[in-house]
Amino acid sequence: MTQRPTQPRSKALEVNLDDSRYGSFAEIGAGQEVVRWFFQAGGAAGTIAKSISAYDMKVSDAIYGKCARYVCRERLEAMLRYEYDLNLERLSADRGESTAFFSFADTVSARNFHGTNECHGWLGIRFQASPLAPPSEIIIHVRMLDNENSLQQEALGIVGVNLIYGACFLSDDPEKLVKSLLDGLSTDRIEIDMVEFVGDAFAEVDNRIISLRLVQLGLSGAAMFAADGSVLQPSEHLRKRPLLVERGRFRPVTHVNLDMLNAALQDFEKEEDIEPGETLAIMEITMNNLHTGDEIDLQDFISRAEVLEATGYTVLISDFPEYYRLAAYLARYTNRRIGLTMGAHSLCELFEEHYYDHLAGGILEGFGRLFKNNLKLYIYPFKAPETGTLAKVNNLRVPEKQSPLYDYLVNRGCIAQIEGYNEEYLSIFSPDVLKKIVCHQPGWETMVPKVVAKKIQDNNLFQHAVKCDVD
């Protein structure tokens, strides 16, 4: 079996030598760094129908239509459609039966002269998997992490070549395609925080799994998808919004999960600078909470994704086991208030010193990072099954050495008790619900929202869980 190339020049040459591939390149914002590889590799006349850089905003508007922002998905999609349709209009009559046409586009904000801008870009390819086939698309969003403009341009060119090569030769294996996007690069240079596959060539692809793979492979620290399963680009959806996040296993979503988020949201939106309805409420799953044993069980992940979809909330998958890392990630995109809601039991664990052994400043550094960006914790009570006692902010027992720190944070208003909770839900625990589902025991239906129960029953979710998962 011939080993596939991993270097950009070799990839570009292989595309150039494929007689069936022919298309256009449209690049805005960082030079023509992608098409340059194809020109330099040799044989470019067999691949490149046109190369264009509509760098001026008025020129770009005249070709692709006006857009609110120039480095955004909307602009990228307009470029892809326009150039692809133009290829078909001009070339399909002569060579449509033997050619799989494509249009590649990117719109990028590389490092400016003063180094003050967000360095990121949208790249995409609209292509035919075979001659006469309907078009499919791959769209990605990248953050460029190099400190020099020239290095960012180089990295952009490489990831663009990887994307085109993947569309041409790896479209039958999307997970391998995603992994190949970083060939010749490293996560120190490029972060890929969104990939979406669309069209007949990817009819069997679940973009939620692709989002999971981005985080699992280390291409991004987090990925997002909407309640309907569509992929979201974090900076566009978190940008300048108040954010409230609930972390959980959601195996499955219970009344407790929704009550915690809804009650926290009521308190969160009482803050003086937040208008009702403007907060983005997010349910977050860490990679740690997705592992079943040593591996990630994709069927289990899909079950959780399906029940989260039923609730209507945005989902974030992250590789941030520490809360302060999650807080730093969210603060990257917004200067508005950030809230995290958790149970009292989780808050108690947050004060265990061993979680901060890897930090030079220990637990004090950890909490300094956590509360750095106007963040507040909203605490849901925990009801002890044995005694029925409620653990709340005012009576929570943290490790004795941390009591002064805990009292300080409470008095400073960094930690707040959720008041509008439903006490009837406090006896519900997700492991008990999961066990009833797996063992076909009645009664679990009353422990979850009706839409979640219906989703579990209609789609037969969580039935693959083995006995050890619920014991």
Automatic annotation (TrEMBL):
Origin species: Gilvimarinus xylanilyticus
Protein name: Nicotinate-nucleotide adenylyltransferase
